[in-house]
Amino acid sequence: MLGGRPTTSSRHGMVAAAHPLAAQAGARILANGGNAFDAAAATAAALNVVEPFMSGLAGLGLATMWVAKEARIRVLDFVPAIPASFPAERFKERAELERGALPVATPGNLAGWCELAGTYGRTSLANIFAPAIALAQDGFPIAEFGALEFNEHLPLRTTYPALHENWARNYLPDGARVEVGSILRQPDLARTFQAIASEGPDHLYRGKLGEQIVAHLASLGGSLTMADLAKAAPVWREPLAVSYRGLKVHVPSPPCEGFQFLLALRILDGVDLSGLARNGAEHLDLLYRAIRLSAGVRIAHNDPAPDLLAEILSDARVEALRTRLHDGQPITGPTEQWMPRAGEDPGHTTSFSIADREGNLICVTQSLGSPFGSGVVVPGTGVCLNNFLYWADVQPGSPNRSQPGSALPICMAPSISTRDGVPVLALGTPGSYGILQTQVQAMVQYLDFGQPLQQAIEAPRARLWDGRSVHIENRIPAATIDELRRRGHEIEVFDTGWTMKTGGMQAVSVNPATGAFTGAADPRRDGYVAMP
């Protein structure tokens, strides 16, 4: 009756994910005695089934978490290094690596899921993967967002005939367009998860599944090897954190590029946004300027050493950026990579947040890179491979040019925030380089303007592009948009008030006084919350 999603709260756990069935899979694990780390692996696997265009076991990702028994924040990085077999010298521009066998990076997601469950979980892989196996075997009805994604990428697949046959066999068994309510069954994927539940992650990294992947890629001209797969190992890292409005916000440290998100918060922390009109021209102008300034710093130094990173986030450096924030001159600069943007980044990613009754809190962001990743589906496995080497920098002359065996910087920022040393918020989003923009926008709505978590996520958002380009959801008033244009922003208005191009955020907050969890899910995709 209030015209929006209600506040959803629980004292026994919470899962906020990009699809209702995936959120329910995680909640089922919590209800059956698992903890947040078990539930994270189960949710991730279920997303592989119900959201296969966004992520899967052959993708890459990062997790930021509060481990209650250790009373500390930890980060798990499951983004393997660029394969040693990658022929980087063959490429001159990013577009050469959009689809096919060559952009496939070493899969990291499966190793990450199993590391989370093995280190901090307490149930078996058979239990963890049971919901995903059931969904893949039985099938599930496709909802509106899923139908849109499948159908939107039908022409793309026919552009790559060597890839289309296996892709269509796996996802379009009737060979027709997907309709809302169409049942998608993935028996090959179910058998793959059954084998992993029995044999563990070595089924991929040293076993039969890996051999099938490498052989199929070789048949398509790919270069990934079993040696590349064997080197994949998740890395535990210390988080990077800054303070903002009384919270300490933690994200993965480099080579993750999440420091852009923190730098934007540092810039804005010196501005009283709460006294401005929410979603007014002054609020949005300052917000967009801070985002563009922080993006420029990240692009100039996309994998900074610790001493340089400390300097980037220092008071003196931030104060200089604040001076530029307020000087009234338009800011023109890149938001993506060092090279000029050639078309829109086809980034497809997913993020989910989970809390359990023991006090554990985790945020995971994972991806295949682009819609259906590389487009390569390995016959007989149901596995769709990533195209993360498209996100490497192969532009000659770039200071960030990628090399075989080097780290692969990733624009993700799964976050955990604490207040006085106590965890209070898990928040993450997909959205390519927009991740580092939309999380800033939501945090400002939540902390500066006091919006409830669900309303903070639902608030109108924008996606900034190279130059001065800003695309805004159409719920912002025309007069505000006119004023933003007058201030130098090149505004284009989306023809909808809700678009996945501004992310798909999922979050869980914790009330330390009551122990209650509140979940929030983004209506821009199929986001939903579930409780045990």
UniProtKB/TrEMBL annotation:
<dbReference type="InterPro" id="IPR029055">
    <property type="entry name" value="Ntn_hydrolases_N"/>
</dbReference>
<dbReference type="InterPro" id="IPR043138">
    <property type="entry name" value="GGT_lsub"/>
</dbReference>
<dbReference type="InterPro" id="IPR052896">
    <property type="entry name" value="GGT-like_enzyme"/>
</dbReference>
<dbReference type="Pfam" id="PF01019">
    <property type="entry name" value="G_glu_transpept"/>
</dbReference>
<dbReference type="InterPro" id="IPR043137">
    <property type="entry name" value="GGT_ssub_C"/>
</dbReference>
<keyword id="KW-0378">Hydrolase</keyword>
<feature type="region of interest" description="Disordered">
    <location>
        <begin position="327"/>
        <end position="347"/>
    </location>
</feature>
<dbReference type="GO" id="GO:0016787">
    <property type="term" value="F:hydrolase activity"/>
</dbReference>
<protein>
    <submittedName>
        <fullName>Gamma-glutamyltranspeptidase / glutathione hydrolase</fullName>
    </submittedName>
</protein>
